[in-house]
Amino acid sequence: MAPGLTQPHGGAPEGAGSARPARRMDQALLLVRNGLRAPGLSLSARAGPCHQCLYQFLAFVPPSNGSLREPGTVAVMVDTQHPLTLLLNSSVGDRELCKIQYHFGEFGNYSLVIKTLNTSTVSCDIVINEGPINSYLPILFAFLVYMGILVIVVVGCLFMKIDPVRNWVYKKLSPRETDRLINSELGSPNTTDSVSSDATPRLWSTASRQRLRSLDTFRGLSLIIMVFVNYGGGKYWFFKHESWNGLTVADLVFPWFVFIMGTSISLSLSSMLRRGASKKQVLGKILWRSFLLILLGIVVVNPNYCLGPLSWDNLRIPGVLQRLGFTYLVVAALEVLFTRAGADSGTLETSCPALKDILPYWPQWIFILILEVIWLCLTFLLPVPGCPRGYLGPGGIGDFGNYPNCTGGAAGYIDRLLLGEKHIYQHPSSSVIYQTTMPYDPEGILGTINTIFMAFLGLQAGKIILLYKDQQKQIMSRFVIWSIVMGIISAILTKCSKEEGFIPINKNLWSISYVTTMSCFAFILLLLIYYLVDVKRLWSGAPFFYPGMNSILVYTGHEVFENYFPFKWKMQDSQSHAEHLTQNLTATTLWVIISYLLYRRRIFWKI
């Protein structure tokens, strides 16, 4: 059942705290006291984020015993993650008595008191019997801990500016030049073709001349947040994927990873072609790398380490790495096949110099626009049995329960038709709030079209870096322009609202508005990191730079070893946000440390 729509726990005696069920994370105890002699009451609830949802029955509240002056009482557990709307109806005639909106606190103890004020007026008041805890204090504590670590690192860097200290440290560490030996697994963002032979121990400054550290930093930032939310994000709702329309922190990272993959594709393929590799050779590498990513993805999302042989009947086909692999194949092949000589260097003449990062690539843009037309036609015109044409909703109890089996509209229908219900994700995020029962895969077939578009926009960022090489102000101004353009498109498509736009922002569907919004953020974030890391060199990119250099290894490793110590252990209190947050942050930090150690030992897993 959806959060806040839990079953009642039987009658409770008069004492406010005398009938407390076992405490559950993100829940509070509500004692409903019916002071009306007659009739009994029906209590229903609806979660705040549940758009156009039916009220869900919670409990029947018996009438009071007039002779003994005892109110009819029932105890229910209610959700504390989101505001709830409580609805009390008379069991006779189903007449609405009162409706209350309230945001309960975790582990709080509340009473909903219903009584008669006069012959025609009924009052419904919520009383706090026992105050809730502040479930967000663990986040504040974790923030302070990491800020303390940052202060220590900054102080250490200041000491490193003292010559005797710096010389002693470098003598002990004996760093080597590693950047000339490695490439990012999804593209090496080299800024020059030649490699300096300078062996001085200034690792950051030496590396900065050879590769754009901002790209690896961006990739690593996206990856680390992805690892954290995949591990559970402390069980906080805003670190989980949005149930349907809208955005949470968890919805930001995958498109950013796709975006920076596109940027790296532009830089790495340009470097390979300039070094003399033939298009046939490059296409062969692209095909092989895509095949390995897809194969690895199928293995990762179908674990059977302790469950015996994997059943082919329930093999999940889509997944994150699968979508990355196919997206890489399309975008990289598109770049190799249609790139014109001199376009990347800016020597190719164009009729409008202000658009020299667009006009030379018009065949690619036509291809992408055709893909978007296909997405729009399939999404809004494809007939889906039992569902309205162009449906973009979650199904379940959404849309007042009229389309319970229409989750995802055309996107869900295409996956179920082509892949089969048992070969797609069985527990979509929409089931949490909207109580959907249909399988739906957020990495399905139709959404891949817009993932390609997202990577292509990242490719566009790479073209800007190549075209305006060494013109840092031009690069940053173009990033700003692209961000504004994408933001305007998003505002039009969504009407600046969560639910009422032409095409709402939706990660499950990978809607076009989701892509334009995420690319708007991505251009701005890349601009900031580029300015801090590669322009002003105020930040080395650490610690995100290191997982960014080994992203496939970190992603695969965190999936494979998710349930193994030291990434997971048996908790003393599984209903504690603090313990979950500690465990998830520890696991994520371990992967940062592992990636740093691998970097120091020049171990990089390339596909």
Summarize the structure.
This protein has 607 residues and is an alpha+beta fold. The chain has helices at 137-160, 163-173, 203-210, 213-231, 253-274, 279-301, 320-338, 362-381, 410-418, 430-433, 447-467, 472-494, 512-535, 545-549, 551-560, 577-600, and strands at residues 27-34, 41-47, 56-61, 72-79, 84-90, 96-102, 109-116, 122-130.
Structure description:
44% of the residues lie in helices and 10% in strands. It is globular, with a radius of gyration of 28 Å. Helix 1 (137-160) runs parallel beside helix 16, helix 4 (213-231) packs parallel to helix 15 (551-560) and helix 11 (447-467) runs parallel beside helix 13. The protein folds into two domains: 27-134, Immunoglobulin-like (Sandwich); 176-193 and 209-600, no CATH class. The chain has 607 residues and is α+β, with helices and mostly antiparallel strands. Mean pLDDT is 85; it is low at 9-19 and 175-210. The chain has 16 helices and eight strands.
